[in-house]
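WARN retry 2 of 3 for item q-0093 after timeout on previous attempt; input resubmitted unchanged.
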Amino acid sequence: MQKQKVIIDADPGIDDAMALLLAVNSPELDILGITIAEGNVPTDLGTTNALKILKWAQRLDIPVYSGAKSPLKKAYVSAQDTHGDNGLGNADIPPVTDAQPHSDAQQFINEMLMTHRDVTIIALAPLTNIALALKNNPKAWQNIQRFIVMGGTFKSHGNTSPVAEYNFWVDPDAAQYVFDHMPVKVEMVNLDVTRPIVFTPNLLYFVKQCHSEVGELLGKILPFYFDFHWKQEHVIGAVINDPLAIAYAINPDRFARGFDAYTTVCTDGVAIGQSIVDVGDFWRKTPNSYVLTDVDASNFMVFFLSRITHLPEEILAKTITQIMVEANTHG
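OK item q-0093 returned
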């Protein structure tokens, strides 16, 4: 099997942590490095959290690079109200003392793009690192194979304003720049397809029965997330946005479908951070994005839990599907 070379740009974050667990347990991926931007938590804290998750997964061989600490223009606003003061649901996870992060995430990204001609970048954070790297060395980006971003919305309402998803809202100028200048289509894993990905307390209980160590970790970081989602949206469970982007990178045909369109991002005013998808081809501009619109949430969850528990999908499928159907019935 030829592995897909990937760089994961993240801001860990509870759902980023779950995405990293999926990534490191997916043999299809050759993770060149993890770069960290400001987002759910400040960059230094996100860097610490990435190392904690890699240490837990026994994958400190993957380098972590600290990057941008503030958006291009807008004042930074974290999401620690959503993810906890430490970004991992205030869970007590030991600090990492046997590995150190690297600096200059943007330089690392560009060096990898210049070295390899088949790199996929999966962006789970505000796009500040990506925009800066692209601005600094656009030539390097001619080598990129795929660019996948967890961000934006199509028809769904926002999660930070009525119209804006958090990653694009935090740094709308970076998001707009990336859509305008990325040499390949931006594959947009947006709230329309991540909102159905709800990790419920029943799924957490099931994981604890299947794999005690993974269940213990998720049991530490998820309760804060559960509480936030109930208070904010009356959802029983938590929407885990970022793991879908990893799964989609591995198998784009299995979990979600979408369409080509021209997309831009609003950078000021009441709609700041809104992703505007020209579904009707009103502007007659060449499509710069592939916007996901439909997702098989149960299929994804079976895949995700199979990877992190190391149990065959066929053993997990019936129970997971039943749990998710019951959650949707009572939601």
